[in-house]
Amino acid sequence: MRKTLMGAALFALLTGAIAAQDEEPQPGAKILERTRADSALLLPQAGTGGSDKSRLNVSEQKQTEFKVEVEGCEKLKAFLSTPIGLDKSRKYALVIALNGSGYETADDLKSAARLSSGRDPLILASLQYAAERAINEDISVIEPLVEPDKLQEAFGWLLKKVMADQPVDPQRVFLFGGRGANDEAVAWAKQLWADDPDAFPFRACLYDGTMWGFDTEAAPPVPTVFSVLDWDVEGIDEKEKKRSPTAFANRLMARGVPAEYHVFKADFMNSEPERLI
Q1: Which residues, at least 6 apart from 61, have a Cβ–Cβ distance to it below 8 Å?
Q2: Three-state SS for 191?
Q3: CA 20 to 30 Å from 29, out of 3, 196, 199, 240?
Q4: Confidence class of residue 180 from pLDDT cuts 50, 70 and 90?
Q5: pLDDT at residue number 13
Q6: What average pLDDT does the segment 153-177 reach?
Q7: Cα-Cα-Cα-Cα dihedral sign, residues 45, 46, 50, 53
Q8: How far apart are CA 210 and CA 240, in angstroms?
Q9: pTM of the model as a whole
Q10: Is pLDDT at 269 greater than 80 in this prediction?
């Protein structure tokens, strides 16, 4: 009942916000209209999508590496993950994935490719934008290879290239910020919306892991999903709760933006974590 009431309130808020645009269209009106339609379809998810009797089948993926053709980004590497047996006569959803520290991107992208199911296979793309530097025999640090503005330029190039070269459904493009890289994903999404709301490319934004600097007022008003592991939220005090993903989700919903917050049980022996919320 609580989720039903919350969903009704969210829909009313968002519908009212869209209706107000009839008098004076706002930047990003088409994106907001699409978000309104999405919110009417979103329902509280009761599980991860599979069951003991009907398990999700992960699609087999092929990873390829190619050069980043952006001035000043020659040290970066681009990676693409596509379903084996890609059918170019159909359209696929695309996920631009920022994973981990931006260092072991090839392995991280293989992990992210598990999002792709045999029922609805995905195309995924990412960049390796950091490198390891040894300080001494015992200590190494991971350092970015480019400045933040160049990184966003490189990801913009990657998005355009994949959409031009692959059979991507332009209405189903998503941004995924994995733990360790969600700050970079948030910053890029925020900048894209600020630069040109009408051209914002992502249907939804998904962020994994704890986040402390999320600006809910500047965040793009598209469906947003936050996920954390249970050990991420253990021992969080009241002050920290005010700047945690659950607080961000609540603030987005207060703006009329569809948002979800999920907690998964940390089980490093099991590749399919159990969802708690």
Answers
A1: 81, 82, 83, 84, 110, 113, 116, 124
A2: helix
A3: 3
A4: confident
A5: 38
A6: 97
A7: negative
A8: 11
A9: 0.82
A10: no
